[in-house]
Specification:
With 379 residues, the chain is α/β, with parallel strands linked by helices. The chain has twelve helices and 14 strands. 46% of the residues lie in helices and 22% in strands.
Amino acid sequence: MKNLLRLLLILLVISFAFNSYSSFELSGKDTPNDKGSSIDLSWKLNDKSIVKTALNIFVFRKGENESVFKKVKELDISTKKYSDKNGLEDNTPYLYYLEFRDISGDVVYKTQQFGPFIATSQWFNSKKMMTLCFSFLAIFIILLFINLAKKGRKLYVRPLPGVQAIEDAVGRATEMGKPMVYSPGISVISDISTLASISILSKVAETVAEFGSRLIVPNYDPIVYSVTDEVVRGAYVKSGRPDAYKPEDVYFLTQRQFAYASGVSGLMAREKPAANFFLGYFMAESLILAEAGAMTGAIQIAGTDSTSQIPFFIVACDYTLIGEELYAAGALMGDDARLIGGLKGQDYVKLVAMIMLIVLFVLKLFGVPGIDTILAGGN
């Protein structure tokens, strides 16, 4: 009995020694924090003579339903790991082996088969933990200010010169006895800039109705036309002058970009408006409209979130709402506490983000450990 136990012990020691000094070690696992179809392979080659002789590493793979191994990648001999994303299917076992070949293509060393390894998709990316935490914080701050606004709390919002000039522009047009032209842009109703423009249009139409002026709204999109028609009609009703509304002044023009620009330019040349409003999403037609309006001597107020078109509006218009100022104007003129609260909440979210960046920068500057991990997402 003692001899048998001694023999088993010797076999275990030999097996351990063989595994410890194996010339090749390979491990594989599903790629973490991904959408699937990827397996991470890593290996260690203990035999230095193979490293000196071999030039390339060939990775071979075989799926559960495949009969033969196929080459999936050729790597340099110095490579120690490889992420296989070449046509993998999730929840399917795969076997791998590697071949080490010299400069002439002869096999210097061939490993045994390793696996099976299975690729799966993850529901949650742990590297995005900081993003998730900040998102919850941002939502909390915005909802807090929306709730404060709904309760009647007066929230200060920086006045925008372009918004303040709208009433002056309407008054100027009324005194001159000339109409105004309002273009809501060339985007669709689902675009946030179009929604902001319609919110501004509602307030402009109310002011026009109160002053007894004329407002012309040519539309690029038929659905936007339907909405603007209802908005302007509702503004006249709200002002107590439904009979003053002229349906022919709010109309669908065309869905062709430069045909729309040509039509609006011709409108301004004929009607000689005293004020032009270009608020919404614009592209290359922005300068055409602004220059055509400037030639009529009208006061012009523009606003867009299309960053490439903002410079043209700045040089050709009297007032320009830049980027997010268009959304802010929509909130300010929308008479909706939720919009004001949301706008104020976003300002505080940006403030918190700036403070966090400054604090992390200072900590990084002083060499505090762990900052890189935080910035990388918590890993």
